[in-house]
Amino acid sequence: MFAYAVRRALRKSKTLRYGVPVLLLIVGGSFGLREFSQIRYDAVKIKIDPELAKKLKMNKVSLESECEKIKDSTFDDWKNIRGPRPWEDPDLLQGRNPEILKTNKTT
């Protein structure tokens, strides 16, 4: 008898039907968010192995060194090639002859 009254109250009361689950989601979400954000702070506290730190310092690449590599290269001989759309044949679009490619695939 009591279970029937509880089920009927749950069906009729909009607060119990919609409000309580929303409040549980908000409160549970705040606890979950706290745990996930704590992971970020715990990861900062982890010490790096000194040997690994030494290797990382030796292999450090700077922005200036990469800029020097790019300055020395020439970009005068590059060709802009548009990629194919799904309904287009990529071999025809990029200037390759499809008959030659078919013969190469079969042999």
List the helices and strands and how they pair.
Elements lengths: L1 H11 L1 H32 L4 H9 L4 H10 L17 H4 L4 H9 L1
Pfam family, one: COX16
Subcellular location: Mitochondrion inner membrane
Membrane topology: Single-pass membrane protein
Structure described in brief:
The protein has 107 residues and is an all-alpha fold. The protein has helices at 2-12, 14-45, 50-58, 63-72, 90-93, 98-106. The model has no long low-confidence stretch (mean pLDDT 80).
Can you describe what's shown?
By secondary structure, this protein is an all-alpha fold. Helices cover 70% and strands 0% of the residues. The chain has 6 helices and no strands. It has helices at 2-12, 14-45, 50-58, 63-72, 90-93, 98-106. The longest helix is centred in the first third of the chain and has 32 residues, at 14-45. It is flat and about 85 Å long. The relative contact order is 0.04. The mean pLDDT is 80. InterPro entries: Cyt_c_Oxase_assmbl_COX16. Its main location: mitochondrion.
